[in-house]
Amino acid sequence: MGNILDYLDWRGDLTFEQTPFNQVDNLILACFSYLDLDEIADVKNGNTLSVEELFEIFSGKEKDGEVKAESAFLQNTPILLEKMASSERFRKCMAGGYVNEILFRKAQQFSAVTVELPDGTAYISFRGTDDTIVGWKEDFNLSNGIVPSHRKALEYLEFNGTYMQSMIRLGGHSKGGNLAMYTAMQCDDALQEKILSVYDNDGPGFPEAFFSSEKVEKVLPKVTRIIPEASVIGMLLNHQKDPLIVASTQKGILQHDAFTWEVMGPSFIEKESLTRRAAASDRSLHKWIDHMDERQREHLIGELFSVLEATGAETISQIQDGGLKSLAAMVRQLDKLEPRSKIMVQELIAGIFGSWLELLPLPELDKKRFLP
User: Fold this and answer.
1) DSSP letters along 193-213, please?
2) Tell me, which fold does domain 4-274 have in CATH?
């Protein structure tokens, strides 16, 4: 089995004329937006570069040591660009409209890029969050009502999409999937008519009240929602579209990394349902978060992440790599919470990190504290 990088090796010689756009192509373009293009002026302010031209510039910066060291998740993006640039399928695609803005007031980042495909369509890719704890916190907060990133995404679509003659695909991974859904459901009728499809790749949902307008019903038939079988972020709050559940080479919450999703030919390898542990996590999340108002959800999310941040780790994988040391730090912080918050956060951690907790060499009594 392979992933999106293998797909480019296997099928990169096939043009869009030979085989049409598919769900795997979508994930490639969703991950494309994770590239740090801040120093490449030719993809901003109405300028465009082909993917192969972009790779030449990017690889030159990499040789000069200008490309920053990134998290494990983002380290795959330069490889993705290289394989896209070497493929007949993607090398002539034109990238432009790149923006990357830090929204300091809400500690959020908004970034997007538009890719014009040889099939005459454009894919607007909204950047998501990486595997950092800060990124996961942003995903949780994103599901707590409308935030500046939503408004920025809608402005981006309205500014760029209005003048496009082509049909538009919208997509993103994680936060990016949520932004794609929001913009598709909130833009005006003329833009909605231009939207060919919307791809939500393991993005968080919305409060129930969001799904009330006629625009939502018009867009849903165009939506493809894809989640891994141990999804956490992609199960947050409410969704109006049943997901395609896919296999991953990772375990538990680390399946959020889209580079671990398994591909065979032009399709993902599908699973019938969530894993037992992911289903338990989903029940815990919905049990507490769905029935809270915005202030209560914000408080609970803050308490949950205070426990995760107490480990001193920067990424989710570092928490798991820390083993018993990470767990001890979380337990100490849990004990500082008020009783009701402690119960809720403990149950959420059990749901989210259950597969990891089961592997730890804990006494049975300690396991009962977290696991059913």
Assistant:
1) HHEEEEEEES---B-GGGTTS
2) Rossmann fold (3.40.50)
